[in-house]
Amino acid sequence: MGIEKFLLRLDRIAGGRQAGVSISDESRNHPKTKRAFTWIAWLLAAELLIGVAAVVIALALTLSGEPQPFSVWMRTLVVLGMTATLFYFAWRAAKGWIWAYSRLRLFSQIFPVITLVLAAIPGLYPAWMITEQIIFSLIMIGIADFLTSDHMRDAYRRPEKSAA
Q1: How many angstroms separate the CA atoms of 44 and 83, rounded?
Q2: In a structure prediction context, what are the per-residue pLDDT tens digits for the chain, which is 164 residues long?
Q3: Of residues 133, 135, 147, the one with CA closest to residue 103
Q4: Dihedral (C-alpha) 95, 101, 107, 110: value to the nearest 10 degrees?
Q5: What are the distances in angstroms from CA 120 to CA 113, 115, 124, 140?
Q6: What total of structural domains would you count in the chain?
Q7: Is 80 within a domain?
Q8: Which of 161, 153, 121 is nearest to 33 (CA)?
């Protein structure tokens, strides 16, 4: 099975009924669309770097005799997994798949709220991780800003349903 065939099956699982719906080539290749996804890729790369840095910090602190709570280790693994998923959604959305754009837009709007609420729970995370979560949230808000621009919402508008 070719990689694209495998990815289309994965898209079907992730995208549901709308997995095969894409935007026009004109919208996909528009300079504003391409620019938005270039910025999104860089912002996601920054998220990945922050996630790896969190693992390194937690590991260094633990090895120096300051064990980190379970919540820190869970958070670091979740952030890395989320970022990988968001990279996949961004990649597929840049190829024009509406389902991927919708997922990326939804998660980029929800994750900052969840992250900031968790950061506000007293004693759940050490101060360094609260700072990491605030930075993570600000970057996610930047991604959401690109995805909710007038151009992107227009480019990724769902096609009208036929009256049949």
Answers
A1: 7
A2: 677 777 777 777 777 777 778 888 999 999 999 999 999 999 999 999 999 999 999 999 999 999 999 999 999 999 899 999 999 999 999 999 999 999 999 999 999 999 999 999 999 999 999 999 999 999 999 999 999 999 999 999 877 765 54
A3: 147
A4: 150
A5: 11, 9, 8, 17
A6: 1
A7: yes
A8: 153
**102 lies in which domain range?**
32-155
Does 99 map to a domain?
A: yes
pTM value is 0.87
Q: C-alpha distances in angstroms, 80 versus 5, 28, 45, 63, 95? A: 26, 28, 11, 21, 23
- pLDDT tens column, 12-35: 777 777 777 888 899 999 999 999
